[in-house]
Amino acid sequence: MTTLVDQPPAAPAAGARPPRRRVRARRRRIALPYLLLLPALALELLVHIVPMLVGIAMSFRKLTQFYIRNWSAAPNAGLGNYRVVLDLDSAVGRELLHSFGVTVAFTVVSVGAAWLLGTAAAVLMQPVFRGRGLLRAFFLVPYALPMYAAVITWAFMLQRDTGLVNGLLGLDGPDAPFWLIGGNSFWSLVVVSVWRTWPFAFLIVMAGLQNIPQDLYEAAALDGAGWWRRFRSVTQPLLRPVNQVLLLVLFLWTFNDFNTPYVLFGESAPREASLISVHIYQSSFVTWNFGLGSAMSVLLLLFLLLVTAGYLAVASRRRRVDA
Amino acid sequence: MREPRGVRWTRRAVLGFLIVFTGLPLYAMATSALKPLGDVQRDWRWFPSKITFRPFADIWTTIPLGRYFLNSLIVSGAATVLSVTIAIFAAYAISRYRFPGRRLFSVSVLSTQMFPGILFLLPLFLIFVNIGNSTGVALYGTRLGLVLTYLTFSLPFAIWMLAGYFDSIPKELDEASLVDGNGPIGTLLRIVVPAAMPGIVAVAIYSFMTAWGEVLFASVMTDSGTRTLAVGLQEYSTEVQVYWNQVMAASLIVSVPIVAGFLLLQRYLVAGLTAGAVK
Amino acid sequence: MGIRQIASAAALALLAVTAAGCGGGGSSAGNPKELVYWASNQGTSLDHDRRVLEPRLAEFTRQTGIKVKLEVIGWPDLLNRILAATTSGEGPDVLNIGNTWSASLQATGALLPFDDATLAKVGGKDRFLGPCLAATGAEGKPPTAVPLYGQAYGLYYNKKLFREAGIEKPPATWSELVDIGKRLTRPGRWGLTLQAGQVTENAHHAAILGAQHGARFFDGTKPTLASDPAANAIKQYLDLMQVHKIVNPGNAEYTDTAKSLKDLADGRAAMFMNQASAGSFQAVGMKMEDLGVAPIPMPDRFPPGGRKVNSFVAGINLAVFADTGNRDGALKFVRFMTSTEQQVALNKAYGSLPTVKDAYADPAFQTEHAKVFQQVLSGTAEPMPQVPQESQFETAVGTAMKTMFADIAAGQTVDAATIKGRLAQADQQLAAGG
């Protein structure tokens, strides 16, 4: 996170000005950065911060269908909603925990795979070869495809009796595997998610590689370092800052992904692939119990905040040690 | 520099796998769009039994595809322009000034990326409705509401990427411009923005794609007049009939201009990311 | 500010205005000459619905001078849109709701109650079919809507396959159905097709079979899902795939009606329990002379407390949004849509059943098929539980059944104890939600 960790450059020096205008100019200079930030700040407040605070307030209320027409009349639930969703002896709490587990596993596997594929493709496509530009463009197509189109095509391919996947694997008849229900649905979700996100990893790593000065490789080669040594001692360390950001962004996007499971499975995802975003959607938008749904979302947010803060702390400490 | 043979073979294997992996759904999409409905509903065939272009004609009447496409273009386009513009100003402040609250701003804006959409979808909707009732500016059910929503989705990442890019532009350029009598805004617009063009294009592509694919908010905040493609494409499947061939044909049609534009601009995207985000 | 800044600011403002223009589908805002109507998706596509409805609406405008702004909304969106309208008070004037949602939506207070005075304005209570009117909200409260399209379940079967196998008449009991199903099942063809991956369909069948087994899913408004009769009912339904093997395990991923319709049309399945859907069969290429329909079977012997039910009262209700600015116009529209003439025209177009008695005189509803559905609807159909938690009930039970079908398809065994465990879990979910 360059802007968070690096020291900012100093403000541009103001030119020499006559003394009587200096005060006004100084005031303007102090106000200017805030003015520049104002539109961004106002919109973030409007669309993110204030609604989120309202959402947090909702989590303390018993906001069921009886009250959605007049929210202010909803009775105070105190910590009641949290007690329900955290009660592991009840079905609601157990299902939430299950869904959380599925989401963590899904995020780890698919971010890992997307990152690995992206890095592998970017590194292997570093040297110039015929058709490289074309291939690079081709690999970016999934990222540019409208989300719905991409995922619905996968849903089409993953049908058991009439899908391409079983056709490709030569599996049909009574023993053909299911991909949209049961245990395999988790892996279907991973594959679709990776298909959509790896090009982004590819793009970012590719850009990162272009920043590595060529002479570093040449120097390493002169020292007799082989391909693998060069990768380990030049490419990898210089890509680390890129990877730090990339992994964090991929983690947040994947963890909060709603669109992929929703389009792939519809409103009710199989239990094995029940991601937390869809689970919360079901608990609030299908059953119109927004107090409970908000309590779940707030817990999710707390978890993400903790992970991100921990990650950034570790990342910046390592950077300091390295430097 | 010579490569060991192992690397060459690994490259062939990995890239070969990725070509198949990337290409399969594209192939399924393209061939299914050319099949009659009866064909796509039955066992998968690698080649259409009969090629038909009817789906490409039917897609326009089954749903108002043209209107949805236009809505998506307007919403994503407007969100992109506004997001990039606002991000340029904010990123300039962060890159060139030191002021109390700078760090707080950066951290809190970036942290909005963590908010689960489900948590603030309904409150946001209510706020829009209330703004509409009290000021007369209709945000619910209009494109404007969607534009404001989407632009803030891409804003954090856009600010952060552009600030990184601006950092890479030598401060001496700014100073020279200030000495020439340009104000800070003039300097930003005349010196920094032109120098940061690749970064700006990269951010614009990112913003556009973010708005282009969003489903959850669009499904609650639009009506039939303002519906976007991401939501509208779902209308090819009803309870009793799923027009798979039309879904595929429509997906193909709406993807072509986006993919083409994206590929035309991808060089900037790489260049922009190179100097900005990933430094 | 220089010229360029001003120019770009102007461009931005222009952009914002363009983006803001158009759109805004809110209610008529009190204009007595205008109504906003949200129609649900009844035809084979939203476009089909528009083609059916627009001439009707034009007729209404001709009669009353009131213009109707129509928006047809697909099922995945409709509940969210109603939710948005309910929370904000900005919605249509008149809207369609699934009749199973009646009690849930009644609880929100967002819909205008049809008390006797209001009912009188749309032509009075007695015009409507009794069972349909029973599915318009909680008992003892004024209806939250009036019935618009009537629906009931029937057993569709492929006459040609039956004939070829020498089967003369459709099954009347479950053991006959299983027997016929087994005779018709052979490689590449199955006796019966189920939408086993569809949450609400599963819940509907649980309710129908539950009634035959004597289950009551609610005691007042308290969920009592985990009963033996309910578990037995669900077991009987699952066993069509699990034990009798007359259902393709592949049906476990059927999440829409389309695939089952197609299976029947193509002769890949011989029977299918569905709501009246002749038009949809036609759309997927069914030879209509081969399509037969019969009531869903009854038990050979009713268990204690079992009720003579083989459908729930399905269909669509027409509601008036409480915040409408044009209540008079809205009620006029309701009266128009439920008039005998429009009921005949609309239900003929959709293949559904009129909800007013007089409309049945029309020859369109004297066909063999229509009579079967009509008898079921008026004689052996029971409304879904009219409680505010109905949609939670459908989601919880339907999802549990979907999961169990997936388990069966994967080769696992689902026994009565498992089913009861799942139902107990659903009970807890409902209790927490209430």
Description:
The complex is a heterotrimer of chains A (323), B (279) and C (434). By secondary structure, chain A is mostly helical. Chain A is 71% helix and 0% strand. Chain A has a single domain (59-67, 77-322), classed as MetI-like fold. In chain A, helix 3 packs across helix 13 and helix 4 (91-124) crosses helix 8 (184-210). The longest helix of chain A is centred in the N-terminal third of the chain and has 40 residues, at 19-58. Chain A is flat and about 75 Å long. The model of chain A is unreliable at 1-16 (pLDDT under 50). Chain B has helices at 5-32, 37-41, 54-62, 65-96, 102-111, 117-135, 143-167, 171-179, 184-195, 197-212, 216-221, 229-232, 244-275. By secondary structure, chain B is mostly helical. In chain B, 74% of the residues lie in helices and 0% in strands. In chain B, helix 4 runs parallel beside helix 7. Chain C is of the alpha/beta class. Chain C contains 17 helices and 13 strands. Chain C has helices at 3-20, 46-64, 75-88, 102-108, 116-121, 130-133, 159-164, 174-184, 199-213, 228-242, 257-265, 278-283, 327-337, 340-350, 368-379, 390-409, 416-433; strands at residues 34-40, 67-73, 94-98, 146-151, 153-158, 190-193, 218-219, 222-223, 269-275, 291-294, 311-312, 314-320, 381-382. Chain C is globular and about 60 Å long. The model of chain C is unreliable at 1-7 and 9-26 (pLDDT under 50). Classes of the chains: A mainly alpha (323), B mainly alpha (279), C alpha/beta (434). The interface between A and B is large, with 109 and 113 residues.
Notable features of this structure?
heterotrimer, A: about 325 residues, mainly alpha, MetI-like fold, 13 helices, flat, disordered N terminus, C: about 425 residues, alpha/beta, D-Maltodextrin-Binding Protein, domain 2, 2 domains, five-stranded mixed sheet, four-stranded mixed sheet, 17 helices, about 15% strand, globular
Number of helices of chain A: 13
* CATH-derived topology of chain B: MetI-like fold
CATH architecture group name of chain A: Orthogonal Bundle
Give the C-alpha Rg of chain B. Answer: 23 Å
Record the SSE blueprint:
The complex is a heterotrimer of chains A (about 325), B (about 280) and C (about 425).
Chain A: H1 2-5, H2 19-58, H3 80-86, H4 91-124, H5 132-144, H6 147-157, H7 164-168, H8 184-210, H9 214-222, H10 227-255, H11 259-265, H12 276-286, H13 290-322
Helix pairs in contact in A: 3-13, 4-8, 4-10, 5-8, 6-11, 8-10, 9-10, 10-13, 12-13
Chain B: H1 5-32, H2 37-41, H3 54-62, H4 65-96, H5 102-111, H6 117-135, H7 143-167, H8 171-179, H9 184-195, H10 197-212, H11 216-221, H12 229-232, H13 244-275
Chain C: H1 3-20, E1 34-40, H2 46-64, E2 67-73, H3 75-88, E3 94-98, H4 102-108, H5 116-121, H6 130-133, E4 146-151, E5 153-158, H7 159-164, H8 174-184, E6 190-193, H9 199-213, E7 218-219, E8 222-223, H10 228-242, H11 257-265, E9 269-275, H12 278-283, E10 291-294, E11 311-312, E12 314-320, H13 327-337, H14 340-350, H15 368-379, E13 381-382, H16 390-409, H17 416-433
Parallel strand pairs in C: 1-2, 1-3, 6-9, 11-13
Antiparallel strand pairs in C: 3-12, 4-12, 5-9, 5-10, 7-8
Helix pairs in contact in C: 9-10, 9-16, 10-16, 10-17, 16-17
